[in-house]
Design a protein that fits this description.
four-stranded antiparallel beta sheet; 6 helices; homodimer; about 170 residues; alpha+beta; 4 strands
Chain lengths: ~170, ~170
């Protein structure tokens, strides 16, 4: 396959990588957009958190879940974006997750601004971007900011497949 | 968006099209490959059928299922491939299905030969292609051919999400 290259020393591979072969995939931007239109999710969690000034923690994350047999695709996404983690999600499902604020702001958001989604997830992405930018401005540390974020987040992922929550923070970066 | 064009007279649009807007999407090959890596399925049904000489009917089909909110993506796939049907699958799910033997042989299979899947569905596609070619040679009309097809089909879609069957042939071309 033209887009497969031999694994070099920079990609030593994990134990799990080796389960699925040692030739990492190079992904084209349009493939990523199509795959994320199908399998991706832009999610904003808002949790009560006593350590936070306003009583809430806002957790935006970009997630792609796959059966473990295709974990090499998640590893390839991680390599492409240069951020995030690939961990077990639930059972035989693996997830690529990006939660780091700067990673979302500097890697994930610019990519999907340049390569627009074609599904209704495009609208979720726009809301997600708005929330991440509000956080950049510190709005999530103020009561009225959290309320606005909660309002925007409540309009996301309607009618879409629900992602399973990760209450123990297993996939935390 | 650069890939959106105005609807021309050749694409008059259906009632359902108009629900989601009248600007059909142009899909790039890599987007389709990524989307099908996520959402597509190559499936071969083998059903007892008294009209058939060998007692069985072999039904290969290419399927992409989506929530109805993204039916425009399925319509865009149909336009791109120039074959197949978009119909209700189950509940609020729609499906793009290609069952026509010549359509599979001349449109679907050449596309995925040229634009290789990156997920483990690539192995399912190879088996699917083998079965469609065996049918082209008439093997599905012979008892030993059906047995071989059954053996190959039993190794497909292992560990993948199961597609819902369509026992009443709702999506039949």
């Amino acid at each position: 396959m033209g887009t497969i290259r031999r694994e070099g020393p920079r990609c030593a591979g994990t134990l799990r990588d080796s389960t699925f072969g040692s030739t990492p995939l190079n992904l084209e931007a349009q493939w990523i957009t199509g795959f994320v239109d199908g399998e991706g999710c832009f999610h904003v969690g808002i949790n009560a958190h006593s350590d936070m000034k306003c009583g809430y923690q806002v957790l935006p994350e970009f997630i792609v879940v796959q059966h473990e047999r295709d974990v090499q695709l998640l590893e390839a996404l991680k390599r492409h974006f240069g951020c995030g983690v690939v961990r077990t999600n639930h059972g035989d499902r693996m997830a690529y997750r990006v939660r780091g604020h700067r990673h979302l702001l500097e890697h994930i958001i610019p990519f999907f601004e340049k390569h627009e989604l074609k599904s209704k997830k495009r609208a979720d992405f726009a809301k997600f971007r708005r929330i991440v930018r509000m956080m950049e401005a510190g709005d999530h540390l103020k009561e009225e900011g959290v309320e606005e974020i909660r309002r925007i987040a409540s309009q996301m992922n309607r009618g879409a497949d629900k992602i399973k929550s990760d209450p123990i923070g297993n996939g935390r970066e």
